[in-house]
Structure formats: structure tokens, C-alpha cells
User: Fold this.
Amino acid sequence: MHPELLKILPEVRRPSRYLGHEKNAIKKDLVGAIHESPLLKVALSYPDAYEIGMSNIGLSILYHLLNAQPHIACERVYSPWLDMEEKMREHNIPLLTLESSIPVRDCDIFGISIPFELTYTNILTLLNLAKIPFYSRDRDESYPLVLGGGTGAFNPEPVAEFFDAIVVGDGEDVFLEICEVVRTIKNKKERLLALSKIKGVYIPSFFEPIYKEDGTLLEIKPLVEGYTGVEKRSVSDLNTSFFQKSNRTTYEGGS
Assistant:
């Protein structure tokens, strides 16, 4: 665990939120793997407090699905509570993953759920704490791919500029395809072009929103030839779709 994080845990409420030692949590050997075949590191986030994010079955499915792949290490991130956020800023502690306490900034993919409108500001808080620029246009290859998804992704425009790519629909199949692109293509422009060819992936920077004088949306103009819209990605058969065999168990108490 990050040494500075250990120092401030006694000063915040419910410190067990930030430990990541639950039963069935998955922690891969990130250091040992570097010398053989580097793992693709995915930080999967729900932009709300730990207790709320833990109950999201969609992220739980993706967490176990990604970690079932030998070449992927997926770790969780939740929004710190106000007291923890204050301490992190005071001690200059970046946003860290729950399992291994690695900086989210150092991951390959930062996946953020877009559940509903009230979490929009938390999305910005997560990016700010991770020391990642808000806007996709300000990020180069040195930053993780900021990927959105979830029910709120069906109306992505209010937050579209903050994401490099957004999954529209179910993520069980498409996420593995995205991981393969990120693993094999490092140039940001080429990577986004490759992602745009995956069904269900929306690349906001490949479109230009046109507004009326009153501020309402008139149209969204495609900027890349052949990429004029996004078709929802759906799991065709729930009987054969991936589902985890076990769930994580949260702590009891945790004052």
C-alpha cells in the first residue's frame, strides 16, 4: 500500500473502504509480470462511494471477466469520501487502485462507469485526483485511455469531451476487443481509429456537435469518413454470456 496512504487512514471515516482486502478480490503480481509479458493494467471505476459502487453488478462482471484473462490485470477505483479527498490533496496522494495501490495515471485503461447525471461531477473529481487532464484533446499516449460506459452512455454528449471512447450498450464482449486494441496499438490517433471500427464504440472526437443559437443541439457532424454513427452493442445470449462464479464480500462495520 502507498506509504502516505497508510499514514492518513487513521484520520478518515471508514478506512476499510480504501484497503481492498475483501474476500474474492483479485490482486495479480504486477511487478513480477513486467519481466515476462507485461500485463495490460485496467482501472475500473464507479464514480461514487465504495459502498455504492460495490453493489454495481455490471462492474463486478467486467472485473471478473477481465481478470479471467491471463494478460489483463483489472483493479477497482471508487470516489473517495470528502474527508479522504481532502487528505489526498493535502498530502499530494494521487488516485490509487484498490488492490495494489498503483496510480491510476499509470494504467493502460481508465474505465469509468456513467450511471446517471448526479455522478458527472464525481467523474471530474476522479480525473483530477488521478492527475489526468479533463479533456480528451489534452491527453496524449502517455495517459491511459479514458473509457466510459454504463446506462448513462446512451446520452453521452454532456460528458463526451472528457472521454476518449464510450461504449454504448453491453460491455462484456466489447471490452475485451478494446483491450486488444490498446495492447497492440500505442499511437493515440491510430488507436482511436481502430476502436471506431468496433461495434458499440463511440469516439467523441470523431464528431462535431452543432448547436442552435439558443444552445440546443442541431446536429452531430461526422468528421471521419465511413464513421457516421454508433450501433448499440448487445449480448445476444445471456445463457452463454460471462458471469462471475463468486462475488466480493465487503467488510462488516468499518468505522
User: Anything to note?
Assistant: Strands lie at 40-46, 72-78, 109-113, 145-149, 165-167, 201-202, 207-211, 217-222.
